[in-house]
Amino acid sequence: MATEAELEAPECPVCLQPFDTITTIPRVLACGHSLCDQCLSSLPPPRPSLPDSLRCPSCTQLVPFLRSLGPSSLPKNIDLLRLVSPSPHPSLDRPTKPNSPLSASFLPIPWTQLDLLSSWKNWILPQKALSLASIHEESKLVSLGSPWFCRENQAVSLMPICAPPVSTNSAENEWFRLSYTAHVLEALGALDDEARDDLSFLLEVSSRLRRGICRIYGLWMGPEKEKCQLFLVSERFRQGLGMLREEREADEGLESGEMFRFGIVGKELCEAVLALHSEGIVCGCFGPSCFCFDDYGHCLLDLSKVLVACKKFQEHARFSASSRGEDDPNGSRTQVFVAPEVLVLLCNEDANKDCGFKDSVGYGSDVWSLACILIVFLIGEAQLVAELSEASSCLLQGESTELYNGWKKKVLTKLEVLLIGTQFESLLPIMELCLSYHAESRPQVSDIWRCFQGPLMKTCADDLAASDDFLSKKSSRCCLLFSKFYSSHKETSTVSLREDNNDMSSNISDKYIAGSSRRGNDSLQQVDGELTESLNSGSFKSVTLHGHRDCVTGFAVGGGHLFSSSLDKTINVWSLQDFSHLQSLRGHEHRVMAILATSYAGQPLCISGDSRSGIFIWSITSPPELDPLKKWYEHNDWRYSGVHSLAVSETGYLYSGSGDRSIKAWSLQDYSLLCTMTGHKSTVSSLAIGDGILYSGSWDGTVRLWWLSDHSPLSVLGDDTPEKLAPVLSLSTGTNLVISSYENGFLKIWRNDVLVKSEKVHDGSIYALQIDKQLLFTGGWDKIINIQELSENEAEVEVRSVASITCDSVVTSLLHWHGKLFVGLANKEIKQVYYRGS
Q1: Measured on CA atoms in the order 691, 692, 696, 702, is the torsion positive or negative?
Q2: Which of 145, 310, 730, 836 has the fewest Cβ atoms surrounding its Cβ within 10 A?
Q3: What is the pTM of this model?
Q4: Would strands 478-479 and 281-282 be described as parallel, antiparallel, or unpaired?
């Protein structure tokens, strides 16, 4: 037997100082735990609405504490004082306990590993923002509806980002569907790190630029019939730069009256390119289709079209290299202009091995491409483009630059005829430098811009910007021509972009229809596809348990058993080992409405309530006893009000919510009625306990809070406006949170008694609700189980859809236990859903 010296002195659970009779006097809280005087004074109120309370560090319950009286308002723990030494111990440092994050065990959250959601959530457009009519219809337009960030029915371009992995969903998993957000993040996760970084950088730059660039709105994923293709959505204007050239004969130059318009367009072309260079972005190639005009006639650079041009040229260059120049690598067929050093790098495999593009491609490459666009727009000779293609082919075959220099000389001769004697004559020497074969000899885009600025300042000074706005970064951050985010992902067994997808990307604005009449929740069912990379190694399974003859009303786990209640007046007992049916507990003469499992005085118990206000307590043995350990009826009037909800506290009290609008507290020691709590105006449909508080939800649309210590009322959560009331059907609690579900399909989240989230998540009543660590499960009338991730910070609480499960009947009850989700259905079935890895 241990001596008194061998016994460790009792310590305060917060500061870890041994209790004594002077500085660290133990004070007993209402929950039974003890703290020292100093810690009691330093602990802040857990909620602003509850100043005279604190959270017990040992059991995390909320308990009363009158701060005006201080620690002296609580009794001393005499039993602990008998064990302590009369002399105080020196002070010890008070360690802080790190918060260890809890992870959900039902399924791997798709975006956890790469932390994709926090980085990309603001760029994911709602699926209902766009509606895909038909991929083969040429007369349709794409519109973005009327979100807050764009004008109504804004036309947009859709640029395919990547091809997701081949869908491997089998028939057995057709009922399990990842959410729209999860599919988008899956596609992003399939990109390699470099491609994802480039895409993120492009989106950030687009959000910062306000002039000369078509805005990129974000990412959007098509419906199931398009294999969940991910698109980059950007602003679109139909009138392109090529339309101005089509107004004149193909081989005619500009008339004198059009020279002013040429100056305006050339200046705005330069400003658009300079805007990208100021952010460190190099395009790598330009074509007439890359530029467009807005509704006010200003020229803009369409980044989506730049990406399409880059992608097409990459494919064309690879084909040309393999065909030994049989097709034009830089000609009229591709309608893009690529600088000589970029062309050689793309098409010459030996050059590609010996040097990296970062050393040879830069802002000078865009200068060359921009000069070619200005030349063709000014001269208008298609023959010059064909000769440029011939010269480019000679460069690829390793021949001298003589043919290229001949093309350059002919172009400059044409320019002299058109520009000498005009206000843009100063453009001639700059254009000669722009067409230099060596990139280091080319000027900056700002030099071209100044050639337009000078003549135009006299007539339109208000349209000019200071040259300080056009400072390119010292080195480029991203080259769009070499970006991989529109064609690359990590999987080796992937689906390449189909030919019709390539055609779609070039004329995508003619193949979609505006507006979407589908409700937001429909996207949970319309999107189908492959699981995320973290789920690809396994699959979700469903096992049906048969045993009830009517609707399943609840679940409970205790004593190594699973209990299920039903309207058939029975409670079925299932093995947690193999989920075989062990036996049925019969005794209720009416429908079993509520059930729970608990342990009191070391004895596991199952407690059930029926529609005639009967409360039955069953002893959980192996196997469970067939007869109830105790039963009684709680109602005290002529109505069969019924027990609709049950809850049990750690202090040994059972709480029952009834149809008579009351909550009754029963002692588990002698099963006597301790008190009756009144205040609700209708049936108490749900009960939940958390943080030392009893929460009660009612059909009157409110959630009431009660102290567990003395069962006094605390506050009421809910709107008292009659037209806004909806019956509360279920409650679930977490740390500082209480979540309530309603008959109208809404879900409300309260944090510290303040409503922080109200969102419609189902079409119809939500009968079942459970929060387990990070996952929130809801199910109800629409026969769908929504699985959502719940996260919070100091500013907000977020609910993000992860997946949905389609059921054959109305979902009436849910229970998550050790990675398995038990689903009670109105058609008498119990579904067990779980993830099975490889």
Answers
A1: negative
A2: 836
A3: 0.70
A4: parallel
